[in-house]
């Protein structure tokens, strides 16, 4: 098998397997956020990507796609149940998102997580070039850095954590907390979204492992009386702003946005775009919105809420319960407040291509991002990027990582329903001049700090450590 100087390891491959009308399978680039973010970074690098092909028991040889080598990792139905739905999305996901849903601690899930993380590490070890770089992505693979270091001490390892890292008092609940920290510390660079995430990580290390930390670094004992320096700091992820701006100028997409507006027919279009996840605060948003209708501050003929909730993790019980609850609320609100002509909430439990999302962003006067906890939230950045005429208002949860950079949004605490209601009304009634002032500041931020810059700054730190190690090895040999 050919090898690569840069290997990305993520739970999912950046492609989905689709079957044509003739039953022939082929691969299509998948629309997810992580993929979009890394697509840019990988484009010119001739790299490899190790990940799961999206279906149980799929056995496929490594193959070329868009100039990169894709290396599928096989997951059995039991792996998916215990490693993916279980430990990743039934334990770590809720624990790291401030226990919005109750995490479940099951020893059999942990065993599967260890087993599958080892498998990903082995696949990466096989494909990385001598002295190359391996970049591990996200919470499903926190043990990969340590396993990989054991297999391939010659490679330099980066790990980026796309979701929040919780406060010590929460992280401490995890029965395998020390193993997870040691797993992550197998990396040379551990990256987080927010300054606070990196702080939480360092605090957990001091409390649980007693390793010294200083500004952005941790001193990890190597077992032979020496220490190894690990960088642990924040690198806020972003979007391919240029690509979104280009789409927003596409005449077909502009025409689509106009047609959507005309069909909706209200003065104001409010928009929510989320994976159907309990972290996104969709319930809180719907509550605020339905109370505004009940209070008579909004009417269905004056404003429509378009809520895109793309299907997510349907095998996990908390997601099934959330879906039931949201769909009941939408039906109730529409039953109570829609008319024959106007629909209060247009709810779409579907995923859409990027072009349609941009048309929706262009059509929306107010974008509602009310996550209860979110690593970053790229939807907020996408909305801002396409609003080239500096109109539109972003209502943004202070609990989303994006709030650190987009302070000119209308920031809300989504738990405060009255505050959220007032903020939605303020957004709807905001004068054009204020909209422009806020949007301009936010657009500058997103354009100056796009995903390419994110990837470059992370990989620059990895590369600096790689060079340092190479120089040291040379000096030791001299
Ligand atoms: C979040 C996570 C990603 C994950 C994505 C979709 O953005 O940070 O790691 O891939 O959600 O979730 P899924 O479980 O469908 O991969």
TrEMBL record:
* Superkingdom field: Bacteria
Put simply, this protein is called Trehalose 6-phosphate synthase
Q: Which Pfam families match?
A: Glyco_transf_20
Gene3D superfamilies with a match to the protein in the record: Glycogen Phosphorylase B (3.40.50.2000)
State the CDD domains in the record.
GT20_TPS
- What GO MF terms are annotated? alpha,alpha-trehalose-phosphate synthase (UDP-forming) activity
Family the UniProt entry places it in:
Belongs to the glycosyltransferase 20 family.
What keywords sit in the KW lines? Glycosyltransferase, Transferase
Per its UniProt record, what InterPro entries does this chain match?
Glyco_trans_20
Its EC top class is transferase
Point out the signal peptide segment.
none
Which species does the entry assign this protein to? Microbacterium amylolyticum
Q: What is its EC number?
A: 2.4.1.15
